[in-house]
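Model: Ready when you are.
Researcher: Fold this.
Model:
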Amino acid sequence: MRLLWVLPLLVEAHNKSFMQHCAKECDCQEELSANCTQASLTHLPRPLPPQTELLDLSHNQLTHLPRRAFIYTRHLKTLMLNDNNISSVADGAFSPLESLMRLDLSRNRLAALGTGFTLGMGALRELVLAENQLTALDSHSFQHLDSLLRLNLSHNHIHLVQVRAFGCLSTLRQLHLDGNRLPSLGNGVFTMLKSLEVLQLRGNNISHIDIDTLTPLTSLALLDLARNRLSGVHFKTFLSLQTYSTHILLRRNPWQCDCDLQRVFRKLRSVRRLLLDDYDSLSCAEPAELRGYLINQVADELCVAEMVTVLIITVTVLVTVVAAILMAERKRKRRSREKHWTDGASQVSYDS
């Protein structure tokens, strides 16, 4: 009974101790969280309770994170650094944070990720790097993130993703690359992403996808390719998705409406595991006479027009061949008659 009476006093003493170690710019809560948002901070606040599990440093004026920046708060599980002016992160800046599960660096000024950016973050589940200034991803960008489930890289300036850039992310389930500048998707880009369920590529400049690019994505449930520059696509590109069921979004691409495209979509729609959710809203960009028309409105006519063209060409060729044969036959008969007359005249002259 005495223990039950003492326990609340111990908890209260612990909470008071936690809040006493809080920097003046921050509000340290009893739930082991430190709220330092909108405090005009240009440097990391000191001191902070070492037991802190959630640290919110969003909406400040931080520009740089030094090596081992969070060594005094190594128990962090959530770290919010969004909406600052961070342009550089030293290698090993997060290395003490072995329990960190969520890191938000969105809306900063990061143009590149160092080789040691991910050091010590083996427990991380979610990394948000949206709305920065990243231009390229290489094989060193996301090392050590063996437990990552969600990676948000949306609305950067990424135009290059090297082969195996995501090679260490075998547990990844969601990858957001929407709103970047990717021109194409080559083979090997998504190698090792066997657990990926959501791939967001909306709003890039993608005009070409290699046939085997999507093959490694054996768990993919959603593929968003809307608002790109696809004018056509190879049937085998999507057929290589060996999944139970994949929803594919393709609207607002400049489709070249011809018989080849009609064949591709007809085949894709016959594959039950591939679901073209927005097929009824896909529209033609070319040829000019079909611009603005929905593909499903003209699909039945695309190959008919091609067949008519082929038929006209075939008939024209046949007529030309027949005419050539007739002309050749006439010339042969003329030469035969002329030869007969010549031979007859020669015979008459000989008899005389």
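Researcher: Now this one.
Model:
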Amino acid sequence: MPLEGWQILIFEKLSNGYTEEAANPIWQYHKYIPYSKPDKVHDQIKFYGTPKDLDDFCLKMAGFYGCCSAAEPIHVQLNLAAYSIEVV
């Protein structure tokens, strides 16, 4: 990936208190889905602090994804010991 692809998002604070994310063209090409929706959802990555670089962004994103996954009401998984599907 060219170096310009390593550029992290630009976070722009809007007048309504929400944040808008601007991804670089490479992220846009790969269909980056923002973690904020202006007027609907506050920026969920910046709750963990403003990312300093790509590694920090990935760490904050992995933390957010982990919280979402852990808090889901129903989780379908494969039990490798019994090789069966379980709903938790």
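Researcher: Key takeaway?
Model: Residues 3-87 form one domain.
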